[in-house]
Amino acid sequence: MKSIITLSHGAGGKDTNELIEEIFFDAFKNEYLTADDAAILPSFTGKLAFTTDGFIVSPWKFPGGNIGKLSVCGSVNDLAAMGAKPLYLSCAFVIEEGFPTAALKKIANSMKETAAEVGVKIVVGDTKVAGRGQIDGVFITTSGIGAVLSNANLSGKYAKAGDVVIITGDIGRHGATILLARDSFGIDAKIESDCAPLWEIAKNVLEVSAEIHTIRDATRGGVGTVLYEIAKSSNVGISLYREKIPVQNEIKGLTGMLGLEPLYLASEGRFVIIVDKNDAEKVLQTVKKSPYGENAAVIGEVTDEHKTKVTIKTEIGAETFLPAPGGELLPRIC
Amino acid sequence: MKSIITLSHGAGGKDTNELIEEIFFDAFKNEYLTADDAAILPSFTGKLAFTTDGFIVSPWKFPGGNIGKLSVCGSVNDLAAMGAKPLYLSCAFVIEEGFPTAALKKIANSMKETAAEVGVKIVVGDTKVAGRGQIDGVFITTSGIGAVLSNANLSGKYAKAGDVVIITGDIGRHGATILLARDSFGIDAKIESDCAPLWEIAKNVLEVSAEIHTIRDATRGGVGTVLYEIAKSSNVGISLYREKIPVQNEIKGLTGMLGLEPLYLASEGRFVIIVDKNDAEKVLQTVKKSPYGENAAVIGEVTDEHKTKVTIKTEIGAETFLPAPGGELLPRIC
């Protein structure tokens, strides 16, 4: 194959077929992967979950992952957050003319590895090539189909006063990683993205508790934005304890220096779980035993005070509103 | 709302919510449309079809449609081509900072109208905003889920010698439209994209014939590329009759002047249908009575000569190979 992607790779002819066969089919091969217009998948019982997510992160690779891993984790976690076992993914690539073929292979291989870890199959794709300057590098949109567990009934609308807020690990690593990948600020910090597939966590907690009300991944906008959305959707208040929020020392240092709130830095491998307080300890221990869950913590509670708002209690007892999310995200991370 | 899209519309906060609610939710509203991470859809029996397609056409609007209509037709037609009733769509937008909000509303409304025509529901979406220059205008990726008709068994691999090749209308209009939308070449031709949803055609022909082997939409690369792919996948030859291929006079004029082959200009509202010759007339008449099918024609036959190749017979009886597709598409059209 040519060493860079050219416009002819997007023209639907010989070069397109070569690209699809040598890179994508080679990486993704499975019994349902198709070169026809749509993949044909066996019937299954129960409700379907259906999700989509576009990824435009720049640079395309970063410590702890790349846009390929990110794109699979994103759709897998969106399905898992609704209590759905991820079954099938689609992926649509838009590639800039001149993008290195070797980089595209790395991206496809990361997608393959992450999909294999979860047991999800990439069954259909699309490849477009944009002219130089028409896009920046490579964009990937993944969509996913999952089978909703019969015991799952989750929504951002179902948080109740008296529930407990659990985070499945330390926060803000993905956002901080991308920030440093763009500009090191003269800092030599060991920060890696937390980007990870979280289906195991969702499955395990739904097995031990029938009282989980909401699961959300704390991606764009971070934990703070997700909690504000839940507070609004469920018409409740959410009260956080500052000292309970797990933040790596390196992230604390970076955010302190730059004046950023870690609650608004993206995590790409963390769930916020809202659960009835009676099941909270059981769920917390289950998360801690699951892959990517070892640093889980209870970070707050759902209340009927300050409805639609998120408040935060400092170490010395003062309670303030967490500033509402809004305005430009720094940096764009997915 | 602000009159242009800003980076804050992609940050996951207040402006993002406003954008989603005022433009996308307002246009797409239905009982399954969700602001959660994934849409939850009722179970259905039978096989699923799953497809994805990215759209990066520039300019975003053109005579006969815009990128929104195109993106819905693309996924609807990919499902229909596999004999699947389109049920649900997802849409992922990547929007350039500075893109006019009013244009985005027009795009969303076209998507709504086209989806309503087919009876497909847009149930989940994603919105990212890229910096000025990071992308050109707006990109849309749609994915679709369909229910495969129990009597459909279609693939590019199933064409057989003795089958007949039907095209459901005159060819090349979408490619020619985009070509002229970029550069008028001093031509004042009345050319409109053929962009259209084709589910009705697929449903109707599958009702009248159990001997339809392949349906493909003649999008990127046009009829010529699609036929070369089928010839290769099915290991057959395909022989076309030049004078039977329906081409609008305006398209004939334009392609003649520019030295382009209409068989390689994209159609976005045309199926190639490969059917046993005994059912060909019945299928042709059914297409002609369906929406968007009035100019349908038998344009060739499947043979066991010249396997993997497409040949074309001229008006005066000479037979030549259709040059194989490959190289750069002119213009990029989807």
The CATH topology label of the largest domain in chain A is Phosphoribosyl-aminoimidazole Synthetase, Chain A, domain 2
| C-alpha Rg of chain A (nearest Å) | 20 Å
Cα(first) to Cα(last) distance of chain A is: 29 Å
Structural class of chain A: alpha+beta
Helix tally of chain A?
8
Task: Please give the CATH architecture of the largest domain in chain A.
Answer: Alpha-Beta Complex
Largest sheet of chain A: 7 strands, mixed
User: Spans of chain A of 5+ residues with little confidence (pLDDT < 50)?
Assistant: none
**CATH homology group of the largest domain in chain A:** PurM-like C-terminal domain
CATH first level of the largest domain in chain A: which class?
A: Alpha Beta
The percent of residues in helical segments of chain A reads 25-40%
Q: What is the 3D form of chain A?
A: globular
Count of domain modules of chain A: 2
Order of strands side by side in the largest beta sheet of chain A?
Answer: 9-11-8-12-10-13-14
Beta-strand residue percentage of chain A: 25-35%
Strand segment count of chain A: 14
Average pLDDT number of chain A = 93
Major protein interface: A-B, 84 and 83 residues
Could you give the topology of this structure?
The structure is a homodimer of 334-residue chains.
Chain A: H1 14-28, E1 39-41, E2 48-55, E3 61-62, E4 65-66, H2 67-80, E5 84-96, H3 101-118, E6 121-130, E7 138-148, E8 163-167, H4 173-182, H5 199-208, E9 212-217, H6 222-234, E10 237-241, H7 249-258, E11 271-276, H8 280-289, E12 297-303, E13 310-313, E14 319-321
Parallel strand pairs in A: 5-6, 10-13
Antiparallel strand pairs in A: 2-7, 3-4, 5-7, 8-11, 8-12, 9-11, 10-12, 13-14
Helix pairs in contact in A: 1-3, 2-3, 2-5, 5-8
